[in-house]
Specification:
Radius of gyration: 21 Å
Order of helices and strands: EEHEEEHHEEHEEHEEEEHEH
Helix content: 10-25%
Largest sheet: 5 strands, mixed
CATH class of the largest domain: Alpha Beta
Bound molecules: iron/sulfur cluster, FE2/S2 (inorganic) cluster
CATH topology of the largest domain: Alpha-Beta Plaits
Distance between the termini: 28 Å
CATH architecture of the largest domain: 2-Layer Sandwich
Structural class: alpha+beta
Oligomer: single chain
Strand order of the largest sheet: 2-1-5-3-4
Length: 335
């Protein structure tokens, strides 16, 4: 099995593993080493052919392999580059690479509006995190930004094309999870845009997952828009018997009110089990769910600052949900 060293940490991985997957394995082995994991905006492990669009995951390969130790001449997309035996990679330990990632961030922000104060994705936005970590204080871009009117895609999803970074994740979801995709990217280059053909409605049992995979606020849940800043809500794991999906979701509560239902995301921000639209949009009553316990939010952005302590959540849930028998026994998995 090939051995790769990322930011001076070595790991042995199965043949065919990408640099990004190897870095995630290091992060999963020891949470203190998670800094070796490059940020991702377009790669999504459960979506085939995702990755290769955004370039945020670039790394510097300072040694190609034991057989051919020459460094790679330019940064490579870690989500699309397989490890070779003896490869040495820099993610956070190389100043030039960090500069290159800053440049990628600047490009992504050329057209993206800084409307975080009114965007529903604030606190959960991967571009917001990337901007804080690698962004410049001010934009150097002097030309007019692309602007589009927001459009409704069906009754439950809103598209803000201004915010889209063309990561293609929603297109992959529509392709791979739904039957009969009616949206995609039209045009090329700086006039590319996500479009539904003649604003066709995306009505499909799993179409709501485009909201969860969108790394920015380009696709938002119309049933949750402007209902609350996400860090003022209390997320809990809950499930229901669902014939269409696993029924495992996160309920975002305010008091007894279910403001929003989403899929459960892992430590890399990816949905563990895609949920159906019925679970997502049609069961906003706490009684329809069995609450398992508080969701630990492990994000370094503002949403992670909510400190969803078990006690606070228990108090809230005990008063809010009579159908939470196991709550006191709830033990928190580290997600
Ligand atoms: S709408 Fe969101 S998920 Fe779709 S391409 Fe744009 S940024 Fe990506
Ligand atoms: S995550 Fe690798 S190119 Fe976007």
């Amino acid at each position: 099995m090939p051995k790769v060293t990322i930011d001076n940490i070595e790991i042995e991985v199965p043949e065919g593993t990408t640099i990004l997957q190897a870095a995630r394995l290091i992060g999963e082995r020891n949470a203190a080493d998670r800094h070796v994991v490059p940020p991702t905006m377009c790669y999504y492990s459960s979506l085939k052919t995702s990755g290769g669009y955004c370039r945020t995951c670039i790394v510097k390969v300072t040694k190609g392999s034991d057989k051919d130790p020459r460094p790679m001449p330019k940064p490579v997309a870690s989500c699309r580059t397989n490890v070779m035996d003896g490869m040495v990679v820099a993610n956070t330990t190389d100043a030039d690479l960090l500069d290159a990632r800053r440049a990628v961030t600047e490009f992504l922000l050329i057209n993206h509006p800084l409307d975080c104060p009114i965007c529903d994705q604030a606190g959960e936005c991967h571009l917001q995190d990337l901007g804080y970590e690698h962004g410049l204080e001010a934009s150097r871009y002097q030309f007019e930004r692309r602007t589009f009117d927001p459009i409704d895609i069906g009754t439950t999803i809103k598209l803000h094309m201004n915010r889209c970074i063309l990561c293609y994740r929603c297109v992959k979801v529509a392709d791979q999870l739904t039957d009969g995709r009616v949206h995609g990217v039209i045009n090329r280059g700086d006039v590319s845009e996500i479009s539904t053909y003649i604003q066709n409605v995306v009505e499909n049992d799993f179409s709501g997952n485009v909201i969860d995979v969108c790394p920015v606020g380009a696709l938002t849940d119309r049933t949750f828009r402007f209902a609350s800043r996400v860090w003022f809500t209390n997320p809990v794991d809950a499930h229901r018997d669902c014939p269409k999906c696993s029924g495992k979701a996160v309920l975002w509560l305010k008091g007894q009110e279910v403001l929003r239902v989403t899929g459960r995301k892992d430590q890399w921000g990816e949905v563990e089990d895609f949920i159906c639209n019925e679970c997502r949009f049609e069961h906003k009553d706490l009684k329809a769910w069995t609450v398992e316990g508080p969701r630990k939010i492990d994000r370094h952005s503002v949403i992670g600052q909510g400190h969803y302590e078990l006690k606070r959540q228990q108090r809230m849930l005990e008063s809010a949900a009579p159908n939470v028998p196991e709550l006191n026994k709830a033990k928190q998995p580290d997600r």
